[in-house]
Specification:
This protein has eight helices and eight strands, in the order E-H-E-H-E-H-E-H-E-E-H-E-H-E-H-H. The protein is an alpha/beta fold. Strand 2, helix 2 and strand 3 form a beta-alpha-beta unit. It has a single domain, classed as Aldolase class I (TIM Barrel, Alpha-Beta Barrel).
Length: 228
């Protein structure tokens, strides 16, 4: 069975020692570095913006998976691409002209992702599914790290997997929020291919060991869904 990609979220890193934590991720078996950008408008929190993204990119040996939790994300796509983003994910709920936004992301040479908040059904992606490289399912309400996983996310992932298959889309399914060793197996079994983990990695005594376990040791917990 294919192993999931692991994208630790630096939202949970030590901001006073960010270079140290990025270098730890470089040495680890993480695949991407997840960068959560929050504007205090679309979500009730402010995280960091372009200067931090640029700084992380200077030290990162892994691709930057930039998640824009901001209003009017199309205004900043070029700047984040120049700051080092390999993937740019925007929220469906924040985009009036989603198809146009996805086209712009591709023109900038980045993978194009769309994120769905917990209340947004997957069928809203039907008409853009073929244009997507990634769909990010929020398994918590966005805005803060360390929240509890919403169990219904598993059903949503299964529905998304069916939709993408019917559309002939090769988009990866990413999950963000409350992801840890206790639910990684179920998530992969339901169809998740990229796991974003923040607190479960950076609050651990051995973050690299947790990354390894998320990537490899979840297999004993995977359900039969993974084979369907």
């Amino acid at each position: 069975m294919k192993h999931p990609l692991i994208a630790p979220s630096i939202l949970a890193a030590d901001f006073a020692n960010l270079q140290h934590d990025v270098e730890m991720l470089n040495r680890s078996e993480a695949d991407w570095i997840h960068v959560d950008v929050m504007d205090g408008v679309f979500v009730p929190n402010i995280s960091f913006g372009l200067p931090v993204c640029e700084a992380v990119h200077r030290h990162a040996a892994k691709p930057l998976d930039v998640h824009l939790m901001i209003v009017q994300p199309e205004r900043y796509l070029e700047a984040f691409a120049q700051a080092g983003a390999a993937t740019l994910t925007v929220h469906l709920e924040a985009c009036t002209h989603l198809h146009r936004t996805l086209e712009l992301i591709h023109r900038l040479g980045c993978r194009a992702g769309v994120a769905l908040n917990p209340h947004s059904p997957v069928h809203l992606l039907e008409d853009v599914a073929a244009d997507l490289d990634l769909v990010l399912i929020m398994s918590v309400n966005p805005g803060f790290g360390g929240q509890s996983f919403i169990p219904r996310t598993l059903t949503k992932i299964r529905a998304l997997r069916t939709l993408l298959k019917q559309a002939g889309s090769r988009a990866l399914i990413e999950v963000d929020g409350g992801v840890g060793l206790e639910n990684a197996g179920e998530l992969v079994g339901a169809g998740a291919e990229v796991l974003v983990a923040g607190s479960s990695v950076f609050k651990a005594a051995d973050p690299s060991a947790v990354i390894h376990a998320l990537k490899f040791d979840h297999q004993t917990l995977v359900t039969s869904d993974a084979k369907s």
